[in-house]
Amino acid sequence: MKYGTKQIAEILEAHVKFIKGEPGGNRAELANANLAGASLRGANLTYAMLHGANLEKADLRETKLGGADCSGAKMKRADLRGADLTETNLAGADLTEAQLGGAECFRADLSNAILRGANLRVVNFRNTNVHGADLRGADLTSAVLRETDLKGVDLSGLDLSTTLMPRGWKAPAEAKK
After folding, report:
1. CB of 41 within 8 A of CB of 62?
2. CA distance 35 to 151
3. Contact between 60 and 83 (Cβ < 8 Å)
4. Cβ–Cβ contacts within 10 Å for residue 7, how many?
């Protein structure tokens, strides 16, 4: 698969050198790239620039995306199971029906992200910005929301029985009929 004049494999190789501070290293600049359906399983994309990229149905299992800019990315039905999304910017990203089971989202930015129908089982959302996120139909089984500010986040209709909620969190009272 190519992006511009380079093969994705070349870009990823130069990016690993960038992360390690080695000669010939260059940050992966994949903003607005069409990577739909790409297999990037286990790739190290720490600090990569993926703003607005099309990653629909991409295989990103166990991928390292810590500190990456994935804001506005199209990630519908992407497979991010076991991915490291620590401090990743996913603001405004479309993660509809994405698979994030077991992902690490510590201190990530998911503000205004679309997570409708997403598998968020056992995801660590500690200190994650979820303001304005659309979680309708998401599966939060055993997810960790401790130390996460949930003010203004609509969790109605979600099964939170096994979700680790912030200390003192109380479900909002049902609207009067």
Report:
1. yes
2. 34
3. yes
4. 12
Nearest Cα neighbor of 64 from 15, 26, 97 is: 15
Neighbouring residues of 73: CB distance < 8 A, sequence distance ≥ 6: 50, 51, 52, 53, 54, 55, 90, 93, 94
All structural domains of the chain: 29-169 (2.160.20.80)
- Token pair listed for 20: 């390690």
C-alpha span between 54 and 67 (Å, rounded): 18
- Give residue 139's pLDDT: 98
Long-range contacts of 97-105 (CB under 8 A, 24+ apart): none
Q: State how far the Cα of 12 lies from the Cα of 45, in Å rounded to an integer.
A: 8
pLDDT in tens, 67-112: 999 999 999 999 999 999 999 999 999 999 999 999 999 999 999 9
| Beta carbons within 10 angstroms of residue 69's beta carbon | 21
HSE, CB side, 13 Å, CA atoms: give it for residue 162.
9
Q: The pTM is what?
A: 0.92
Asked if 93 and 113 count as a contact pair (C-beta separation under 8 A), the reply is yes
| Residue whose token pair is 């009272």 | 173
Structure-block tokens of residue 82: 């076991």
* Torsion from C-alpha of 10, 16, 18, 20, nearest 10 degrees: -150
